[in-house]
Amino acid sequence: MSGSGTVVGPDGLRRCPWGLEAESMADYRAYHDTEWGHPVHGDDALFERICLEAFQSGLSWLTILRRREGFRAAFAGFSVAKVAAFTEEDEARLLADPGIIRNRAKIAAAVGNARVAAQLGEGELDALVWSYAPSGRRAAPRTSADVPAVTPESTALAKDLKKRGFRFVGPTTAYALMQACGLVNDHLAGCAARAA
Question: Is 132 one of the annotated active-site residues of the chain?
Fold first, then answer.
């Protein structure tokens, strides 16, 4: 399906093919239509997306999407200040929580990333992430094969985040963050969500 263009859903709307994967059509369709590619601002909101993209590494996005509410409950709504204050006992609690992905390194990275983000001033994480939004408009990708996995901007964002102490933020993860948070619009040409 990687080379295909938009596909028509049961409601007659054209969408990116991943938004209509049969096994998970309702979950992906809702995320595709109402969230992915929409601008996300705010330190806590962007911290949540950084964490979820890191937890997704090596897994399907559907796994994360279906556990997102569990993650939100386990990580205090992804409040930077609250997660930065997590203790070793909190990390042990997270490792035992069946509502999230129980990966020790990713949990430690989320807590560590909160501590790094907490050292930034209010609004600085938002400003930092958005400073890497590409300038100018790019042509809409025509097929999924036209969508890059990494760009110079995502490589630079990942490098900047790592320099500040963030973990699990490589160029591919940074690009997925940029796509999900609306820094780039990678909905395919003809996709109803792109027009919206």
Answer: no
